Amino acid sequence: MSERTATTRLSESERRLVETTGIEVIDEGQRTAKPSDLFWPWFAANVSVFGISYSSFVYGFGISFVQALVVTVVGIVLSFLACGIIAIAGKRGSAPTMVLSRAAFGVNGQKVPGVFSWLISMGWETFLAIMAVLATATVFRQLGWSDGTTTKVLACAVIAGLIVLASVAGYHTIMRMQSVLTWVTGAVTIAYVAMTLDRVDLSAVMAREAGPLEAVIGALVLLMTGFGLGWINIAADWSRYQRRDAPGASIAFWNTLGGALAPTLLVIYGLLLIGSDPALEEGIVNDPIGTLATILPLWFLVPFLLAAVLALVSGAVLGIYSSGLTLLSLGVKIPRPTAALIDGTILTLGTIWVVFFAQSFLAPFQSFLITLGVPIAAWAGILMADVALRRRDYDERALFDRTGRYGDWNWVAIGIMAVASVIGWGLVINLFADAAPWNNWQGYLLGPIGGREGTWAWANTGVLVSLAIGFLGWLALGRSIVRRQEEGLTPAADARPDRVVTS
Known about the structure:
Blueprint: H1 3-8, H2 12-19, H3 39-46, H4 50-59, H5 65-93, H6 97-100, H7 102-105, H8 111-142, H9 149-169, H10 171-196, H11 202-206, H12 213-226, H13 228-231, H14 248-274, H15 278-283, H16 288-293, H17 301-329, H18 336-356, H19 362-389, H20 411-426, H21 462-477, H22 479-486, H23 491-495
Protein name: Purine-cytosine permease
Keywords: Membrane, Transmembrane, Transmembrane helix, Transport
GO molecular function, one term: transmembrane transporter activity
């Protein structure tokens, strides 16, 4: 065994042992991906026409087209840039995102953000499956076919099955699948725009009145949590196959471009299309993608449905693959296929409940998203600061050893996350108090700026505040911790040229 392997790299026998858990450190020989390869999974997962529907949610804050345009570009790009920064950690450590999080939180301390990560991943997967089932029923109705219980049950079974089977297939199959889906869904999306462009009424769009600053910030937070921050807890899962000498800036760039390009363009088009038609804006509340299909000619409904469902399945596959890894990182001792089956079962039950029993799914989901978005934003701030502070690759063995340099529990990081979450929850409100009354406990710090009924309450600034506290807190208090961790490398290992990180 080489000196470098003895100090910071796992031996082959250790790799085989870790591989059985599903959160293996990627062998050097398998790290052949280029930064540009990151474009495909992120683009495919975000090229769904659902992005057009988001414009309805943005307009719901009562802002103008110009204001909505600005927050769309800024919110989506910045949120995926945050994913790109965390993706650099995947290149440095060859392990899933929540395993790499152990460097900041400790091997067992990572379970605190890990629980929130698993919950938000499950929420997204279920949400995407729900939209696919509802879209199927709506398109069937448009075609004059049955859209009743049988159709929804079959759609639910097929969609859930596709998601679970694809996620079990693993990284390389998913990467190939995503590159194909990019072209299919992209082509149909372009065709959708071409067929509906004549419905855009610029005079109606520009006639929308401007909203106050707090409404603009509220729309910004919604877009950030709905796009990049919704993916940020899995950002390094797809970069762990990158070559160790890949520039960190290139990884961040391709991750950001792949994630942000399609949704930015689609939301902008949605601002034009939905801003021209109040009926579309109203229908999207309960069936985002199905409503978009109502303005299409009959002959195009089947290709539209297939592309829309495949795009949603594509996003859910990324989520369920990573949620399975997160479940394993929490200490659950089961094979990865079993973890995928557990998550798939939960996804299926959640989809059945919403499709057949819930009166509204958008309102509870948005309430859920903002609530989990606060601690995830705090965690993301801490991990982005951790990436910025580190100058060396992660010690792979220590990521799995609670007696190693990263320790068992890092109470500084956990404390920062707790403080950021408490403050963040105090500055957000449940925007859907009637639909989700179980979530009306937030907003307890809004008194000085108008209380829960004030205009600033609707801005949900707690997400941004939590992110900032996490980032600045770890940047200040974690600097010495990271330095001590990195000083634990032996001089011989530290002096080797291949220990230099190019990010």
